[in-house]
Amino acid sequence: QVQLVESGGGLVQPGGSLRLSCAASGVTFSNYDMSWYRQAPGMERWFLASIIGATGLTNYDDSVKGRFTISRDNAKNMVYLQMNNLKPEDTAVYYCRAKTIDIETMHEYEYWGQGTEVIVSS
Questions:
Q1: Cα 119 from chain centroid?
Q2: In this structure, are residues 51 and 80 in contact, taking their beta carbons and an 8 Å threshold?
Q3: Euclidean distance between the first and final Cα of the chain, in Å?
Q4: Does residue 1 carry a pLDDT above 90?
Q5: Of residues 27, 21, 17, 29, the one with CA closest to residue 5
Q6: What's the rounded Cα separation, in Å, for the pair 13 and 78?
Q7: What average pLDDT does the segment 19-35 reach?
Q8: CA 53/CA 63 separation, integer angstroms
Q9: What is the pLDDT of residue 27?
Q10: Cα(37)–Cα(49) distance, rounded to whole angstroms?
Q11: Distance of CA 76 to the CA centre of its chain
Q12: Which residues contact 90 (CB under 8 A, 6 or more apart)?
């Protein structure tokens, strides 16, 4: 059974930092591309950053480029999101996603965690 569990959220002041973690189980982790998304109240879930399983290549949404850093540890089945210089508009529930494609069937497998809440407020 595939499970993704996020942690590390909380209340932080503007300008502060947090590191989110996502622990994966039930998957061959290095086969999965991992991503972070967030969803603010009343808003759609929004892509923030991704990291390729095989190469470690990263991609970021412009809104977080230069402030957020995604990384992974395939030996520990973990993906991280380091968030610096946090702003009130970063307040949201943050989710990690795991995605892979079976190259034989071309079937896509996608899994989501339950989310961790980040509140940026003074």
A1: 16
A2: no
A3: 40
A4: no
A5: 21
A6: 26
A7: 95
A8: 23
A9: 86
A10: 7
A11: 16
A12: 38, 83, 118, 120
Q: To which residue do tokens 């961790």 refer?
A: 116
Structure tokens at 86: 């946090």
**Pair of tokens at residue 48:** 């923030």
Burial class (CB in 10 A: 0-12, 13-18, 19+), 62: exposed
- Farthest-apart Cα atoms in the chain, separation: 51
Residue 58 has pLDDT above 90, yes or no: yes
Which tokens is 100 given?
């892979």
Concatenated DSSP letters of 44-105: --EEEEEE-TTT--EEE-TTTBTTEEEEEETTTTEEEEEE-S--GGG-EEEEEEEEEEETTT
d(CA 65, CA 117): 20
Identify the helix (H) or strand (E) that includes residue 37.
strand 33-39
pLDDT beyond 90 at 54 = no
Which amino acid does the sequence have at 122? S
* 65-113 pLDDT tens trace: 999 999 999 999 999 999 999 999 999 999 999 999 999 999 999 999 9
